[in-house]
Amino acid sequence: MGTSTENAGPDAAHGPHAQGAADGPASPSADGAATAGHGAAPEGPRAAAIGPQPGPVDAPAAAAGPQAEAAGPQAEGAAVRSGRPGPPVALSPSRAGDFMQCPLLYRFRVIDKLPEKPSPAATRGTVVHAVLERLFDAPAAERTAGGARAMVAGEWEKLLAKRPELAELFADDPAGERLAGWLSDAEALVERWFTLEDPTRLEPAERELYVETVLESGLQLRGFIDRVDVAPTGEVRIVDYKTGKAPRPQFAEGALFQMKFYALVVWRLRGVVPRRLQLVYLGSGDIITYDPGESELLAVERKLLALWEAIQTATATGDWRPRPTKLCGWCDHQAHCPEFGGTPPVYPLEIRPADGA
C-alpha cells in the first residue's frame, strides 16, 4: 500500500486518515524509540483492551541497544526475565531486528543476556516517551507545549529513582552543565512534537499498550505500542514516536517493519487490519505514514515464521554467526565478538547437532 513522508503541521494528524511523522532505521546515535517497550509495566485496562495482559512473570522489560530505551533488553521469556540462560520463547520487533542485523547480537542479548551500558540518547528517548504518554492524563485544554516541557525534569527524576545506575551517565558532570544540556535537548524534542500533532484534538484509545498473541504456528509475538487511536468509525491508527531523525527513503521499509509487526499482532487480536501506521520523528520533525493491507501482513507473518525457524535452528545448534556492518562500531559486545578478536561466552544451552551432521 502507499507510504507517505512529509513535514507535518499541528493539524496533520487527528485521526486514522491523518498524515503523521516518519520513522526508519534509527541511526546508532538516534535517541531510543525504535523498539517495542519503553520501560513501563503494562496496566490492566490498557493491556486487556487489545490483548491478554501479561502477569507479573510475563511482562517483558524494555528493549535495549543502539536504537532502544534505557531499561535493558526486552524479555523474550521467563528465563530472560529471571537472568537464567534459556531458549527464546517469543519474538518482539526489536529482537527480530537484532537477528536480522546480526544473529550473534541476538544471542548475546537473548541467550547470554550480556549487560549493555545505557546511553544518554537512549535514556533521553525513554524520558521523552514518558512525557508524551503521561501528557494525555491531563484534560485536553491543559496539554500545552510549556506544560510538557516542564514535565521533562520530573520524568527524568522518576526514571532515575527506578534506575539509580543511570546517574553514571553524568558522573563526570559535577557542575550539572551536561545534564542541563541533555534535559534541554529532551525538552526541545517534546516541544517539536507540538508542531506535528495537536494533543488537544487527540484522545488516544491506548498508550504504551502491551500486546501479545500466539499465531497458529505456536509463535508468540509481543511488544509495546506507543499509541493507538481509534476513530468513531472503528478505524485504528498505530503511532510510534522516534526521537531520532527520519531515514532516507531507501531505508523506510526497514523502519516500517516494526509497525507492520504491530499491525499483524493487532489484526490477529482484533480481527481488524489497522487503517494507518504512523511514525513520528521528533529529531527531524517528519512523519511517515503507511496504510497496510491483509496481503502485506500475511507476508510479514511468513517472514516472522522464517525468522523464528532460523532462530530455533541456531538455538539448537549453537551456530550464531556475526554479520559485520557499520553498526558494529556502536556494539557493546565487541570484546566477545570474533570479528573484533573476541571470544563469545561458553554457550549455556544444550547443543543438538544439525540434521545430517
UniProtKB/TrEMBL annotation:
Superkingdom: Bacteria
Sequence ranges assigned to domain PD-(D/E)XK endonuclease-like in this UniProt record: 91-338
InterPro entries the UniProt entry points to: PDDEXK-like_dom_sf (IPR011604), PDDEXK_AddAB-type (IPR038726), Restrct_endonuc-II-like (IPR011335)
Region (Disordered): 1-95
An MF annotation (GO) of this entry: exonuclease activity
Biased composition (Low complexity): 30-44, 56-80
Pfam families documented for this protein: PDDEXK_1
Keywords from the UniProt entry: ATP-binding, DNA damage, DNA repair, Exonuclease, Helicase, Hydrolase, Nuclease, Nucleotide-binding
Gene3D superfamilies xref list: 3.90.320.10
SUPFAM superfamilies reported for this sequence: Restriction endonuclease-like
Protein name: RecB family exonuclease
